[in-house]
Amino acid sequence: MKLITSYRGRGTEVGDEPMVLSFPSAPAGTPREGCRRRIVKASGLRLALQLAIAVVVFATAAGGAATKALAFSSHELAAKIAYCQDCHGPAGQGYRGFYPMPRLAGQQVEYFEDQLRAFVEGRRLNSIMSPVARSLSPAMMTALATDFRAFNPRPLGGDRRELAAMGEKIFQDGVPEQNVPACAACHGPEATGIKQIPRLSGQLYLYMVKTLTNFRKDRKEHLSDVMYPVVESLNKRQIEAVAAYVSSLR
């Protein structure tokens, strides 16, 4: 018996093979023959009902999945990406200007999403990004994070190269006498981050300096209990050195 020939989320095709029941032969018109006809008819009705229920269940599940998957159109996603690119660069490489815009390219998806939620919840303070983040659905946040994660442009540069060697030592080894741990312990030896720990590799020099200098002012204390004592222990030259080092990494 053929019930369902295919199902791909666009509907259900029902086969047309008849249901065949075998009974001992009996003369036409006898009670056994009448019983047989009623059984066949009842079985056919039950089959039809079962198929109808199956179609409704599958169609409902498919419709729900489709609705969830299509929470926004590809046009809407493209429009949001283009909006982000206006400030963060066509490949998410960031922008050097009066207000340096951070690199988003290659950023960890989990960190990207968490920071957008931080703007919505007031854990991060920014007059531009807070209203932008509030306009995004959770599904859109994930889609944007995933798209920018795939970008891999070259770093913009513009750092103080003479400080890079000093910054590398701080990043890889820390500053024990100031109780500063190695940045690489959390962000990885290549500064690529992991999950909710951000990628620093290739980040703009000026943005890194600004972020580390104003960490306490721009972010509420509970956002990063680990980072507060670190940034408070680094002096201006050390911050600039770390920024120079990570901004040169690919």
Draw up the topology in text:
Layout: E1 4-7, E2 12-14, H1 31-69, H2 74-88, H3 109-121, H4 129-134, H5 138-149, H6 164-173, H7 184-187, H8 205-213, H9 215-218, H10 227-233, H11 236-247
Antiparallel strand pairs: 1-2
Query: What fold name stands as the CATH topology of the largest domain?
Result: Cytochrome Bc1 Complex, Chain D, domain 2
User: Residue-averaged pLDDT, rounded?
Assistant: 78
Distance between the termini: 61 Å
Largest sheet: 2 strands, antiparallel
Order of helices and strands: EEHHHHHHHHHHH
CATH level-four homologous superfamily name of the largest domain: Cytochrome c-like domain
**Rg from Cα:** 31 Å
Q: Tell me the number of helical segments per DSSP (H or I, 4 or more residues long).
A: 11
Counted up, domains total: 2
What labels describe this entry?
3% strand; single chain; disordered N terminus; 11 helices; 250 residues; two-stranded antiparallel sheet; 2 domains; Cytochrome Bc1 Complex, Chain D, domain 2; mainly alpha
Task: Provide an overview of this structure.
The chain is built from eleven helices and two strands, in the order ββααααααααααα. The chain is mainly alpha-helical and 250 residues long. It has two domains: 4-69; 74-247, Cytochrome c-like domain (Cytochrome Bc1 Complex, Chain D, domain 2, Orthogonal Bundle), CATH 1.10.760. A two-stranded antiparallel sheet has the order 1-2. β1 and β2 (12-14) form a beta hairpin.
